[in-house]
Amino acid sequence: xxxxxxxxxxxxxxxxxxxxxxxxxxxxxxxxxxxxxxxxxxxxxxxxxxxxxxxxxxxxxxxxxxxxxxxxxxxxxxxxxxxxxxxxxxxxxxxxxxxxxxxxxxxxxxxxxxxxxxxxxxxxxxxxxxxxxxxxxxxxxxxxxxxxxxxxxxxxxxxxxxxxxxxxxxxxxxxxxxxxxxxxxxxxxxxxxxxxxxxxxxxxxxxxxxxxxxxxxxxxxxxxxxxxxxxxxxxxxxxxxxxxxxxxxxxxxxxxxxxxxxxxxxxxxxxxxxxxxxxxxxxxxxxxxxxxxxxxxxxxxxxxxxxxxxxxxxxxxxxxxxxxxxxxxxxxxxxxxxxxxxxxxxxxxxxxxxxxxxxxxxxxxxxxxxxxxxxxxxxxxxxxxxxxxxxxxxxxxxxxxxxxxxxxxxxxxxxxxxxxxxxxxxxxxxxxxxxxxxxxxxxxxxxxxxxxxxxxxxxxxxxxxxxxxxxxxxxxxxxxxxxxxxxxxxxxxxxxxxxxxxxxxxxxxxxxxxxxxxxxxxxxxxxxxxxxxxxxxxxxxxxxxxxxxxxxxxxxxxxxxxxxxxxxxxxxxxxxxxxxxxxxxxxxxxxxxxxxxxxxxxxxxxxxxxxxxxxxxxxxxxxxxxxxxxxxxxxxxxxxxxxxxxxxxxxxxxxxxxxxxxxxxxxxxxxxxxxxxxxxxxxxxxxxxxxxxxxxxxxxxxxx
Length: 704
Hints:
Helix content: over 70%
Mean pLDDT: 83
Radius of gyration: 35 Å
Largest sheet: 5 strands, antiparallel
Strand content: 5-15%
Shape: globular
Order of helices and strands: EEEEEEEHHHHHHHHHHHHHHHHH
């Protein structure tokens, strides 16, 4: 309920002097403000159609307030005076904080239920595809009964695809409805990461697999059908695990969002409670009004107490609960002071009531700070543990990779009759067992770390699949076939190592940025890099001057001379280059963005690094550095222009939500369809009937 769209029509023989949209904001059945917005129309025409968009956020109605809205049109009768007509009065009630929180919770529950349902369906398809594939082993061809079972599987797979699409839509809807909730940058980043996981959970290759399976079944190709069913089993196992993982990550995010909301609400309550303390001490307000305000704050504190209890339950429902303790004792102390202040107001003891209200407000502030510190410490501890576990798994994976390569190369050179063949097969089994342990630990960790990509679990499933196949081939002494599956395993292990290394890097960056006093990490933009490059150029100029004083006119220095300075400068140039490469890759689309081709600048930096490492510093190098700085300053200006464009686009996006363009196009299409209907009417049709059809279309807003 953040935007309302209207399409309508006004008709009058005199034309129109104005059309406006009006709304009143009401509180306790009293109008507290009225707003009027003019809508552009053609005043000299007797008929006008219009399309109007209203962003409810611009009304700035507070929770619990009511908005009345209507359209008002005035005709253009210059003789008798303009006559005014109003549309039907409509109302919208801004939900209270409690109602908004309940709606958010209901949406969250709906999403979790849909995910759980999809997990069950994926599990069913995984088991049934395995069963059907196994039933085909001893058959020469696909029977009519087999065909029916496969068709039933295909139908279930299509249902699952639709279910996953619904989950993505529900998550997008939830994010949109949560826009008004205050969230930290960390929570917004987690929300984005989980959205990306939801968006990418369904592999496009699944559609191809379904079509291929359908064709093979129609051709009654038993062997290939059996092979595709095995792929279906693996795909659904991956999907089931990934959905289960995202569900746990979503529950953790929900806990963190709720905790942050409770901390924010406690801060707001503290301000309101202390403000009420001042009002009570001033004695300017009626005692009954003060009692009512205190009663409202008491109710809000009770609601918060209930929410903290629910939060505790949500935490305990997690596979790995957070170190959260429900501050029941602190809340009870606050509630006692609140009740004491109300009792004092009943006795008309303003001084005593004000003191208790002030104390309750201060206790709320202390509790908010305590909960915030507990939250931060918990996050830091969790990040440290996750990074440590990820590092351990990565080391174990790399060691296993070396072991796998040894076994693969040894078996390649060995005949199947070699006495040590069985011993190497046993080593392969040990590798499989070790990788199974890694997979289990990694899957458990991925449920707590959204930075771990969804393809990580996919690669682990590929590893398990190929290891099973390699052991099956080794059992029958089909070594070349086993080598092929071992090579597939090696590829997946290497892919996995790169992914885990990237995830570890992200976690370590989070740890650095979350340390007290480190402040918010500033993104290195072109301005910062240009300044760093300019400073480095000055250092290089000084080094060149020092070399000339020492007699190094050839642009080189001897072994051991100025090594520290040159090493430091080379390192600085490398850091600038790496940061520039990141900007070029992520923001400049590898040279195709507005900052131009930065690849040439990167190439020149590499040349400078090489010169500095070899302690060569000639005038040619300094000239190149000046040109390099000019290129960077040009890129800096382009980046500023790009940021301004982004701000303008962002501002435009805030003025009109994503649904605006869709609704406007829908309105235009309706108009076009209506006009086409009128144009297709036979010329011989009576004017009376033509007019009636036109009026009917107008009532549907399908013609102008």
